[in-house]
Design a protein that fits this description.
alpha+beta, Alpha-Beta Plaits, 2 domains, 9 helices, 6 strands, 60% helix, elongated
């Protein structure tokens, strides 16, 4: 048994195949979740990142075995960790309504890269456990996050008005009903409402109310064309 473990930790053909296969599986598990949610970096991207990081560490281990103390065994891995940032940054976008999208995908790519480093160096147990934890965070914690946000007294809204004079009426209604305006920013309206005005608001209710009910009430006010929760 010990001989088999030692064999899998060496840089030989069998261990390279096993490591790259494991990289495909682990990277694919994380990428599958992103693909289901139609994120910019999906199945292929996460697998390729994990394979690339794995190959970097296999090469690192091979160089170290060949040249010993002349080579730094952590050099290539360090470059992967810092270099993956450019790929992650490419998945982060700011929408027209000032929403930041892609942070979780970027973090997932970085985590996939570090998972690949663990696989590449033969640290199989850490890679498999890490894959389980990463996948759990991206799925189970997302549901918890949604529940917390749904029950939060703070809402981020995009509101579109027929014209600018209705903004004042809208603000007065919020104040009269004990709703605090934490921030407000006027934006360009939709293309179909050239004479109107859009607004990004962060509001806080005095007591817990269902977000859908608040949006329904605000959407029925005079001069309000649309109300959407963002974030």
């Amino acid at each position: 048994m010990n001989n088999i473990i030692q064999y899998l930790h060496d840089t030989n053909t069998a261990s390279i195949i096993i490591r790259l296969t494991l990289a495909c599986v682990c990277g694919g598990i994380i990428g599958f979740d992103r693909m289901k949610k139609r994120r910019p970096a999906g199945l292929k991207t996460h697998i390729l990142v994990c394979i690339g990081a794995t190959l970097a560490m296999i090469t690192n281990q091979y160089i170290y075995n060949m040249y010993g103390q002349i080579s730094d065994p952590a050099r290539l891995g360090a470059q992967v960790i810092s270099g993956i940032g450019f790929l992650g940054a490419g998945t982060i976008i700011v929408t027209g309504r000032q929403q930041i999208k892609g942070l979780t995908t970027a973090a997932g790519l970085w985590a996939s890269a570090t998972m690949g480093l663990a696989i590449g160096v033969g640290f199989y147990s850490a890679a498999i456990i890490g894959c389980i934890f990463i996948f759990a965070v991206m799925t189970a914690v997302q549901r918890i996050d949604n529940v917390i946000v749904a029950k939060s007294p703070v809402l981020e809204l995009y509101v579109e008005f027929l014209d600018v004079k209705h903004v004042r009426t809208f603000i007065d209604f919020l104040k009269a009903n004990g709703i605090r305006i934490l921030s407000i920013q006027l934006t360009e309206p939709s293309s179909y409402n050239a004479h109107g005005v859009g607004s990004l608001l962060t509001i806080q209710t005095a007591q817990h109310k269902e977000h859908e009910n608040i949006i329904e009430v605000l959407g029925g006010l005079d001069g309000v064309l649309t109300v959407e929760e963002v974030g």
